Amino acid sequence: MAAACGRLVPRSAVAGLPARCFSFSGYRSNSDGKPAKFQPPPKPVIIDKQKQREERRFLSPEFIPPRGRTDPLKYYIERKDMIQRRKVFSIPEFYVGSILAVTTADPYASGKVNRFVGICIQRGGKGLGATFVLRNVIEDQGVEIRYELYSPRIQAIEVLKLEKRLDDNLLYLRDALPEYSTFDMNMKPVSHLEHEEIPVNKLQVRMKPKPWSKRWERPKYNVKGIKFELPEKKMQEAQKWSQPWLEFDMLREYDTSKIEEKIWREKDLQS
Amino acid sequence: MLRCAAQRASGDRPSGLGSVRQRSGRGAGRAGGALRSGGRGPAAVLRMRAGAAAGGSAFPLGEWVTRIQMALLNRRLGLSLTHLSGTVIQRHFSITGACRAIQKLTRVRVVDNSALGNTPYHRPPKCIHVYNKTGVGKVGDTILLAIKGEKKKALIVGHKMPGPTMTPRFDSNNVVLIEDNGNPIGTRIKTPIPCILRQREGKVSKVLAIARNFV
């Protein structure tokens, strides 16, 4: 019963109630025999959905160690260094598809700082070498810059628009029409409230005519954010390369829930 | 007769259309001896008209051959030359994608506003030499370019190959034409230039002076 209503205060904690009593109401008596003051039953705590969302925490993907037989001590030490850096420099929560503005220290740039605005198309690397790639189209020229999250050269990372997309990486934007990668350098940040869910942008991108850098219609890339305007025959031909057994392959499974819990406990101890 | 016409036409027209022309010539020949006399007329007309057109503009064949003429030609020759019909001729040969870093025979994009770099030509500007110990050119290297039948030096200002982190990677191989002494030929560069170029002083400083955007 105590497990079922976990938020309720357990009976033994309520003062003045002997453990042998089986009901809250009924005979209550003090040690000197006088009737005790009426003590109202403990109020059940209402689980607020908003508070639950606040408690949902974002663990950056570079904290999760890659699957392998390396000694976990190496990743533990690296995580300590990452948390140290995060105490000094705030790395905001962002996903692939969010628009960021990054200011870096550059000895060769005018004013010694260089600001670049772009959409995050890829997040790679684990540990201190974690990187993310920002893409923008400036004067009809597509530019991509790979930044290291924990580099001391980065002065500020600002999230202008926090949102997710349908895919984990947006490398297909290179073959999409340039309007989907163009963002204003002086864009104003779009406010995002703390307790709101991360919005998923279900945008389907239109592509330039083929040939593309990769054959995005093939099931290997599992791209959901492209509006394919190819003939039906080509789409069916692409399915020839599907590998339906891959999703059932047990050796490729990597359940990170327990690892994430361990990392959260470490983080709470350190911060 | 057919063969003579083809040779004459090949002399006039630029070599890029060689494959298309020869296909039509050979196709007309294959139509059969009986049709040869009939096929000569429209096929020769097609080629001569194309020849006249190609001498002037960069879009040969398409401007002169109308759909009606193509339909007539198809029926006459008994072949389907549908790939030639329409106002835009689709060339069915494959080209490699943009080279990642710049080396010999890389097609590059000239980004300044010089006349040499911006006038259309039937062949894209190609790198023929890289002034480097390795034959691979990165940002800030000088290369020798073949543009419009002449040789010109150029400075690489961006390539498709990913470089060190924090440096920009462009979607095309960009190049700025320069003289032998390092003076740029153009007067303005609109495309963004990587800041890393400032590290190399010397001939690069004159190019940086005409650049507008820095990434």
Q: pLDDT under 50 segments of chain A (min length 5)?
A: 1-6, 8-14
| Poorly predicted sequence stretches spanning 5 or more consecutive residues of chain B | 1-63
Task: Report the end-to-end length of chain B measured between terminal Cα atoms.
Answer: 60 Å
What would the average pLDDT of chain B be, to the nearest integer? 72
- The chain-level mean pLDDT of chain A equals 86
* Strand elements of chain B, count: 6
Looking across the biggest beta sheet of chain A, what order are the strands in? Answer: 4-3-2-1-5
With helices defined by DSSP (H or I, 4 residues minimum), what is the helix count of chain A? Answer: 4
Termini gap of chain A: 35 Å
Largest sheet of chain A: 5 strands, antiparallel
In what range is the share of β-strand residues of chain B?
A: 5-15%
Give an account of the 3D structure.
The complex is a heterodimer of chains A (271) and B (215). Chain A contains 4 helices and 7 strands. With 271 residues, chain A is an alpha+beta fold. In chain A, a hairpin with a 2-residue loop joins strand 3 and strand 4. Chain A is globular, with a radius of gyration of 27 Å. The two termini of chain A are 35 Å apart. The N terminus of chain A is likely disordered. Chain B is α+β, with helices and mostly antiparallel strands and 215 residues long. Chain B has 6 helices and 6 strands, in the order H-H-H-H-E-H-E-E-E-E-E-H. The termini of chain B are far apart. The chains are: A alpha+beta (271), B alpha+beta (215). Chains A and B meet through strand 4 of A and strand 5 of B. Strand 4 of chain A pairs antiparallel with strand 5 of chain B. Chain A: Keywords: Mitochondrion, Ribonucleoprotein, Ribosomal protein, Transit peptide.
